[in-house]
């Protein structure tokens, strides 16, 4: 699957699941392990888990197996590893605490998709 198709599937899965503040960052120029970093916010740990599962399932339904999904029993952060795309779904407090967008600082190449 090409990267644009995967990005579209990820965005649609998150948007359909009512994720907030979806941000897709092209990190291909600064990362050796992935090309896209996606960060989205869920409203609760249940919502975060559901969004992560939704992304993994939609990608799987499109014919590509996720490399891994990491989450705890009451997750405030779920990571979905899709190889050339990494998806982070976090509660609002976890997202504010870890500030992944600032960590990657890819302002010129990033795009924010409004709710």
UniProtKB/TrEMBL annotation:
A biological-process GO annotation: cytosolic ribosome assembly
Subcellular location: Cytoplasm
A single GO cellular-component term on record: cytoplasm
Any GO MF annotation of the entry: ribosomal large subunit binding
Subcellular location, principal: cytoplasm
Membrane-crossing segments per the record: none
InterPro entries xrefs: Iojap/RsfS/C7orf30, NT_sf
Family: Belongs to the Iojap/RsfS family.
Name of the protein in question: Ribosomal silencing factor RsfS
Organism: Thiosulfativibrio zosterae
Chain's gene name: rsfS
